[in-house]
Structure formats: structure tokens, C-alpha cells
Design a protein that fits this description.
33% helix; six-stranded mixed β-sheet; 258 residues; four-stranded antiparallel β-sheet; alpha/beta; single chain; Rossmann fold
């Protein structure tokens, strides 16, 4: 893992004008993400986690501060980014290969090699036979795997993920955590991951960044010193429980919140 930051968030602030005055969502946010790191952002609802992610994605312009990717302003580096949302957002009239190839179609002609790459990604996530099927033929967890393939197909250096497993049942979410960890290990992408689940953040991450609210700001950046690749058994270790407790104490909630 390289030590040079691939994402640098410096003194970012986000405010909105409301009928009652100015509402500040984020203030004095600083964050560094190095190449190949898996970083989770946790905090209370309304604390600005998704806002920060969207600023990094270039979907929002901060009121103050800056975000750079490999030293360049975020607007000039969008080809290095891909985003996975809370829901798969797949087009129902396109089969799964067609959904995966959509970002490449926006950029120009889709080549046979790109189609092979899309099929390879489906094999990577265990959906080798799903290319010709349509989203409605897949479970929620499978649809989210297709959405992850869509994010990976343009070979981004950075993946931004906004609670991608929040709508899944507990068993499917557990499986997707293991699947995402494997994909991350095999692709070497840098991942910035927003979640409300403390156990999920501890399980997946190299570092857990805790956002305090009113206004949102980074109040802790915790290195997770647990073995890779992690298994379900790691969740029952004293070390894992200690990290959960530490994060929960900082947020001010009971351990294990999801």
C-alpha cells in the first residue's frame, strides 16, 4: 500500500441557506485516503456522511475547503471515480451486461473487449450466468453485485459507496461484506464507504473515520489492526469487540448499532 494520499480533503465546509438562516452540515473536515485503503465513515444520521461522500464524488461543491485526487481538483479527476449508491439503480429494460456497460456507453463505443471485461466482472462476483438475465430476475443482493460490477467496469482507482447494503436483510448483508472484502483484495481499489453499521465498518476497514454531528466534522480516525482477509469468526474476537465499543463510545450509541 502506498503512503501518498490518493484523496485529500482539506478544511471542507458545507452550508445551505434555509428560511431560518444558514445551516452548516459540515465544518473543518480533513481526511486523507491512501492508495489501496478501505476507509469507512460512520456517525449519526444527519451528520453529513453522505454529503461528504458526494463532495468527494464531485456531485456537490463545498462552501469552503477543497478536495483533491492525486493532487488535482476533484472536477478534473472524475474518470478515476465510481460510485455505488444505497440501491442498485439498474435499468429494468436492460439485461445485466447492458447495465454494467452503461458507463462505458456514455464515454463512447463499447468494444468486444469491454464486453468480455463485463463478463469477467460477473464471474468475479459469482454471477457468471446472469449476464443475459434482467434485474428483476435477481435477488437484492445479486442486483447490488451487478451495481458493483458497473462501478468497476471503467477501472476506477477509487470507489465511493453510500450504504450499499443498508436495504439488505442481515444474512445477505453479511455475505455481501465478505464478497466486497474479497473484491477489494483482488482489485486493489481504494474504497470510501459510508455505513450506519459499526460492526460492518470494523469488519471491512483499514481505518474507521467517525463523523461528529452539528455540524459534521471528523472527530476520530481509528486504525483497525485486525488480520486480512477477515472471516466471520473475527467478529467474535475480543479485539473486534473493543473496536466496536470504541467507535460506539465516540458516536454516543450502544454497541452494534446497524
Amino acid at each position: 500500500m502506498k503512503t501518498t494520499p490518493v484523496i485529500q480533503v482539506r478544511d471542507v465546509e458545507m452550508s445551505y441557506d434555509t428560511p431560518d438562516g444558514t445551516a452548516t452540515i459540515l465544518k473543518n473536515c480533513d481526511l486523507q485516503i491512501r492508495e489501496g485503503e478501505f476507509i469507512s465513515i460512520v456517525g449519526r444520521s444527519g451528520g453529513g456522511k453522505t454529503t461528504l461522500l458526494r463532495i468527494v464524488a464531485g456531485l456537490l461543491t463545498p462552501t469552503a475547503g477543497e478536495v483533491t485526487i492525486k493532487g488535482n481538483p476533484v472536477q478534473e479527476a472524475l474518470n478515476d471515480l465510481a460510485m455505488v449508491f444505497q440501491k442498485p439503480v439498474l435499468l429494468p429494460w436492460r439485461n445485466n451486461i447492458g447495465n454494467i456497460l452503461l458507463p462505458l456507453e456514455f464515454r463512447g463505443k463499447v468494444t468486444p473487449k469491454m464486453k468480455r471485461d463485463a463478463q469477467d466482472l460477473l464471474e468475479l462476483v459469482g454471477l457468471a450466468d446472469a449476464g443475459s438475465k434482467y434485474p428483476y430476475e435477481l435477488s437484492g443482493g445479486m442486483q447490488q453485485r451487478v451495481a458493483i460490477c458497473r462501478a468497476l467496469v471503467s477501472h476506477p482507482q477509487i470507489m465511493l459507496m453510500d450504504e450499499p447494503f443498508g436495504a439488505l436483510d442481515a444474512m445477505t448483508r453479511d455475505t455481501m461484506n465478505l464478497e466486497l472484502q474479497r473484491i477489494w483484495a483482488e482489485t486493489g481499489r481504494s474504497i470510501l464507504f459510508v455505513t450506519h453499521s459499526i460492526p460492518e465498518a470494523v469488519f471491512l476497514s483499514d481505518r474507521v473515520v467517525v463523523i461528529g454531528d452539528k455540524p459534521g466534522r471528523v472527530i476520530a480516525d481509528i486504525k483497525i489492526d485486525l488480520p486480512r482477509l477477515r472471516t466471520r469468526e473475527h467478529r467474535f474476537s475480543p479485539e473486534f469487540a473493543a473496536y466496536e465499543h470504541q467507535v460506539a463510545e465516540l458516536i454516543g450509541v450502544k454497541e452494534g448499532i446497524s
